Every structure is written in C-alpha cells, then in structure tokens.
Amino acid sequence: MKKLLIIFASLIILFTSCSPKKTEEDTNKVLYNQVMDIHDEVMPSMDELYKLKKQLSEKIENSPDLVEEKRQEIEQAILLIDSASKGMMRWMREFKPEEYKEVELTKYLESEMKRVQTVKETMQNALDKGRKTNQE
Questions:
Q1: For residues 112 and 97, is the Cβ–Cβ distance under 8 A?
Q2: Which tens digits make up the pLDDT trace of 44-67?
Q3: How far is residue 72's CA from residue 63's CA, in Å, rounded to a whole number?
Q4: H/E element holding 136?
Q5: What pLDDT, in 10s, does the model give residues 82-131?
Q6: Cβ neighbours of residue 110 under 8 Å, at least 6 residues apart?
Q7: Which pLDDT band holds residue 11 (cuts at 50, 70, 90)?
Q8: Nearest alpha carbon to residue 78 among 114, 44, 127, 115
Q9: Which residue stretches of the chain are H helix?
C-alpha cells in the first residue's frame, strides 16, 4: 500500500511538472492557428489586387487625355496595391516559426500576429482604394 501511495504521488508530481510545457505548446498552437487564419482570410484577395492593378493601369494607358488629378489618384491606388502585395509576399517569405523553440516561439508568434494583422489592414485599404478608384 505504501509503494502504491509513493507511485501515485510520483505520478502526480510527474504530470504537474509536465503541465506548463503542455500549456506552452497549446498556446503556440492557438497563436499559430490565429496567425494562419488571418493569412488564409486575406490571401485570396491577392488575385483581386492583381486584377485591380491591371484595370487601373489600363485605365491610365487607355486614357491619354486623363485629367492629371485623376491620373495621380489612380497612380496612388496602384502604389498602395503594390505595397500591399509586396507586404504579403514579404511576410510569407519571412514567416519561419520552425526556427524557434517553445518560449521564443510564443513571443515570435505574438509579433507575427501583429505583422500579419498589419498586412491584412494594408491589403484591405488597398482593396478599398482600388475598388473606389476603379469605379470612378
């Protein structure tokens, strides 16, 4: 009975000592999934950004008598679209969670969450500006 109690106590100590690592792993999985959810949400917009850029560029090319103010507005929309596209591509190229260990991974994923959120906002702004400019 005494041996059984010692084994039981040892198992409790063993499980509680491993618990924080499990929590860290769970936190990292949740963070990783959140980061990827944002990526997956905005990545399909890359195609629309490309199409908007093409349409806006054609608008400039096919309108030699375009008012200078309108030309500048279209060029600004194209620059914003380029910036958003490059931002997403840069983020994807630089996203390397496999290079980090558990504790560092949590910090890394938290910073990547901020970065991918910025990419999302930039892309949304570019889409909004591109759509609006294209309709005018």
A1: yes
A2: 999 999 999 999 999 999 998 989
A3: 13
A4: none
A5: 999 999 999 999 999 999 987 799 999 999 999 999 999 999 999 999 99
A6: 31
A7: low
A8: 127
A9: 2-42, 45-61, 68-94, 102-135
Question: Given this model, what pLDDT does residue 101 score?
Answer: 87
pTM comes to 0.77
- Give the C-alpha separation, 47 to 124, whole Å: 13
The residue count of the chain comes to: 136
| 3-class DSSP assignment, residue 67 | coil
What pLDDT sits at residue 88?
96
3 state SS for 40-65 = HHHCCHHHHHHHHHHHHHHHHHCCCC
Residues in Cβ contact with 119 at an 8 Å cutoff, skipping those fewer than 6 apart: 38, 42, 84, 87, 88, 91
CA–CA distance, 84 with 123 (Å, rounded to integer): 5
CA angle 22, 27, 33 (to 5 degrees): 125
